[in-house]
Amino acid sequence: MTDLFSKFDPLIAERQALLDSGVRDPFSIVMEKVLSPTEAVISGKHTILLGTYNYMGMTFDADVIAAGQKALEQFGSGTTGSRVLNGTYQTHRECEDALKDFYGTRHAIVFSTGYQANLGMVSTLAGKGDYIILDADSHASIYDGCYLGNADIVRFKHNSVEDLDKRLGRLPAEAGKLVVLEGVYSMLGDIAPLKEMVTVAKKHGAMVLVDEAHGMGFFGEHGRGVFEEAGVADQVDFVVGTFSKSVGTVGGFCVSNHPKFEVLRLVCRPYVFTASLPPSVVATAAASIRKLMHAADKRAHLWKNSRRLHKGLRDLGFSLGTEEPQSAIIAIVLPDQAVTVRMWQALLELGLYVNMARPPATPAGMYLLRCSLCAEHSDEQVGEILQIFEQAGKAIGYLPSQAA
Amino acid sequence: MSDRTQVYDRIVELIQPLNKKGIALAETTTFANDLELDSLTVMDLVAAIEDEWDIVLPLNMLPELENIGQLADAVAKLAK
Mind giving me the DSSP string for A160-212? Predict the structure, then answer.
């Protein structure tokens, strides 16, 4: 019998070699207690969290928790059904209403995860004979959406307006085209030049979908995302997002003004063939989304944290993924896996959790320590975070020990 | 239609920098098993080929193009 697992042997060996060198496994962290949006207990140690996507710190908001508890009591623990059959409760409708109000759109559709939102939208919108034009560094859910569908897939160089223009220009003028962009690219925390890209997409007669997973809550006047800040809201056909970042729970969505949008509820397989979200989850999402409409102070503090961490890390001598702080993600670029894991572990031992990212998730084979900030990180915590980085960097010999 | 031999020769030139193991390249050399190219490298190669011949080589065609000869056939057909 052929062992179907033998194809994973190289990865198993690489991982074992890493663990044999005495480091902890970066991909099997357990949080024993979660104390707040910014603190948890990991292996018995009080730890500052700098690797969540809890950008707006909504997970422990009293109103959000109360909404979830009420729905849990009134509607029970789960729907046990598809959105199109027995799985749409009043809570789901109210959640979609909150999204429509937040985005100012006529339609909103809630999926069970953000991954499924992209999987469903990309695979359903572009069919056989249509083209999907996507950024080379697109999230896995967008690529998987392409492979679930039957469209022809064309990839352009990351964030290159010129390359997008060139590749769109090669496609048949009459063919259906969907350009898929992201507001914030989550590995390096860089943002897309959406104004220029959307203009180019429209010049070639394409529809545009923008994933604002990492932009919702703190870009643009209403916190809708990078597309709002770029001033192209009236030209973007579909905005996809998630509840698992700024909203602080789990779930995915798409909002649009397309007059035929509602038909997706019948034809979009990742929407139809799965159970809907538990009522408590959509109730927390709705409460959180409505609060995010009035979160100007939190937004301002999140941006302040991002600018301070970016400058502080650069001053310490770290190489960063972006020249300027562009989002709530600050990525530290390290030379190889060994240094990255040692640094990651040194930080953890000093009480700081960040995300490690490695190929194939990263662009150009980079090894990254990705810091994601929260509006609830206090000024004192950001100061402590920078001290821990300095101490860890010196401890592993990456930063020169005589440096400031 | 572009000359198949010219297309093949140019593709071999484009692949040579990716040929880390320095194996002999032939019509039957496969991208995954022989050249051990990961999916990102293959997608970058596709972009270079699209620009070279000003064609569209959709990524969903890749599973059918396992070796250099098959890729040359596809490019020669598209580059009219």
Answer: -HHHHHHHHHTS-TTS-EEEEEESEETTTTEE--HHHHHHHHHHTT-EEEEE-
How high is the ipTM of this complex?
Answer: 0.90
| Interchain pair A167, B56: CB under 8 A | yes
- Three-state DSSP state, B76: helix
Q: Which tens digits make up the pLDDT trace of A3-24?
A: 999 999 999 998 899 889 888 8
Within A54-113, residue ranges assigned H as helices are 62-75, 90-103
- Asked if residues A292 and A247 have their Cβ atoms less than 8 Å apart, the reply is yes
> In sequence order, what are the beta bridge partners of A46?
A41
* Structure tokens given for A54: 């809890």
Average pLDDT, chain A: 96
pTM score over 0.80: yes
From B18's Cα to the closest Cα of chain A, the distance in A is 14
pLDDT in tens, A177-212: 999 999 999 999 999 999 999 999 999 999 999 999
C-alpha distances (whole Å) from A300 to each of A49, A216, A376 are 20, 14, 11
Cα-Cα-Cα-Cα dihedral of A187, A193, A194, A197, to 10°? -110
- Whether B46 sits inside 8 A of A155 (CB atoms) is yes
Known catalytic residues of A are 186, 214, 245
When scoring B33, B36, B40 by the number of chain A Cβ atoms within 10 A, the one with the most, hence best to mutate, is B40
Residues 34 through 53 of chain B touching chain A, CB cutoff 8 Å = 38-40, 43, 46-47, 50-51
The answer to whether the Cβ–Cβ distance between B55 and A153 falls below 8 Å is: no
Cα distance between residue A131 and residue A128, in whole Å: 8
Q: Are strands A238-242 and A207-211 parallel, antiparallel or unpaired?
A: parallel
Here the tokens at position A97 are: 């209403």
Q: What are phi and psi of A62, to 5 degrees?
A: -60, -40
> Cα separation of B22 and B12, whole Å?
12
Q: How far is CA A282 from the centre of its chain?
A: 18
Peptide bond into A10 cis (omega under 30): no
Contact A131 B58 (CB under 8 A): yes
Rg (CA), chain A: 22
Q: How far is CA A363 from the centre of its chain?
A: 16
State whether residue A35 is helix, strand or coil.
Answer: strand
3 state DSSP class of A255: strand
B50: nearest CA in chain A? A167
A contacts of B51 (beta carbons < 8 Å):
166
pLDDT at position A403, please?
46
User: Which chain A residues are closer than 8 Å to B60 by Cβ?
Assistant: 146-147, 151-153
Residue at A189: amino acid letter: G
B4: distance to nearest CA of chain A, Å?
22
